[in-house]
Amino acid sequence: MIKRTTTIFFGLVMILNPVIGQRLKQQFYDLVSTNDTLGQQQLLEKWEKADSNDPELFVAYFNHFVIRSKKEIIALGQNPKGTDVLEITNQDSTDKGPIGYIYGETQYNPTLLNKGFVWIDKGIDKNPDRLDMRFGKIYIYGQVEDYENYTKEIIRTIDYSALNKNQWTWTDSEPLEDALEFMLGSIQDYQVQLYNTENDSLLDHMKKIAGSVLQYYPDHIPSLSNLSIVYMIQKEYGKALEPLLKAEKINPRDFVVLSNIAQAYKLQGDKINAMKYYALTIKYGDEQSREFARGQMEDLKKQ
User: Fold this and answer.
1) Domain containing 276 — which CATH number?
2) Separation CA 86–CA 280 (nearest Å)
3) What is the predicted pLDDT for the residue at 30?
4) Which residues of the chain have a pLDDT value below 70?
5) 107 φ, ψ to 5°?
6) Do the domain assignments include residue 116?
7) Is 259 part of any domain?
8) What's the structural domain count of the chain?
9) What is the largest CA-CA distance in the chain?
10) CB of 228 within 8 A of CB of 243?
11) Domain residues for 283?
């Protein structure tokens, strides 16, 4: 799976006199960098009066309300988030393990965040080909862990890609190069985010997204693999093999697919086919996958 970072800030270019537009754009960035939300609001109101249909205005308003909604707090609990974590221990106890953690946590004001969504929805309605707007919205749903809307927005994007034939644009409404590849790569990253939650209740979300991609792009191997992984986690090994064997026909040398096929057969109890596909993984894989396959084959020989 390929990870890709999606940022909230998309850049701002004014559809006004170039000198005025450049000055206001720089002012907005300066106000963002200094966290002057009042100044941002005043600038945005001025911008709106000058050109209420500028696509970048909708993006800027969205960013503005996301910034205002975001709040960093110090939390005390048993399930720390992030990497900046302080352990709390009881020195008087024989058990020297941590009894709790202090860590930073990000919260979002739902009222302000909803105002941002209203603005970006307006922007998408007026500029449906702007992929950055759609991805910005999905990104924030992921940040607030609203995976229901997160999934719905991803599927809406996939559905629309069939209508606009992937003629996507990005910041400043510039055409996006390799638009289909970029869109599918980003959606794969969103699938990784769902998978990394380790929340089995979200497996059906992964399944829905994979199914939506495959409806329009049936040869998309990462989505076939995602579907198989969901079925394997759900211990439906026969169903897991169906998309994997289809992926193998598309690319018989994809060692990730071959390794997953071997694993599905192993979990299913089919030792002969598992050995066959681990051997193929060794033939076509990189060093890490070859080492893993050799270890699996040794385990199978001992059974």
Assistant:
1) 1.25.40.10
2) 46
3) 85
4) 1-22, 24-25, 73-105
5) -120, 155
6) no
7) yes
8) 1
9) 76
10) yes
11) 222-303
DSSP 207-273: HHHHHHHHHH-TT-HHHHHHHHHHHHHTT-HHHHHHHHHHHHHH-TT-HHHHHHHHHHHHHHT-HHH
Instruction: Give the pLDDT score at 5.
Output: 40
Is there a domain that residue 133 lies in? no
Separation of alpha carbons 263 and 237, rounded Å = 9
User: What is the spatial order of strands in the sheet that 70-77 belongs to?
Assistant: 70-77, 98-108, 85-89
Look at residues 222, 288, 243, 286 and name the one whose alpha carbon lies nearest to residue 3: 222
- Give the Cα separation of 217 and 156 in Å (integer): 15
Q: Name the pTM for this structure.
A: 0.83
Q: d(Cα 45, Cα 65) in Å, to the nearest integer?
A: 13
* CA–CA separation, 59 and 50 (whole Å): 16
Tokens of 211: 């199914």
Show the tokens assigned to 240: 């897991």
User: Could you tell me the two tokens for 96?
Assistant: 């020297």
CB neighbourhood size of 249 (10 A) = 9
User: In the structure encoding, which two tokens stand for residue 106, read together?
Assistant: 């990000």
Cα within 13 Å of Cα(179), Cβ side: 19
> Is position 134 within any domain?
no
Query: Using alpha carbons only, how large is the chain's radius of gyration in Å?
Result: 24
Strands 85-89 and 98-108: antiparallel
Closest to 241 (Cα-Cα) out of 216, 260, 219, 218: 260
With 0-12 / 13-18 / 19 or more C-beta atoms within 10 angstroms meaning exposed / middle / buried, residue 28 is buried
Q: Roughly what angle, to the nearest 10 degrees, separates helices 255-268 and 271-284? A: 160
Alpha-carbon distance values, 65 to 43, 214, 270 (Å): 14, 35, 55
pLDDT attached to residue 54: 87
Instruction: Quickly tell me which residue has 């997160």 as its tokens.
Output: 150
The identity of residue 216, as a single letter, is Y
pLDDT of residue 76: 58
Residues 6+ apart with CB under 8 A from 4: 185, 186, 188, 189
Q: Where are the alpha helices (DSSP H) in 70-146?
A: 110-126, 131-143
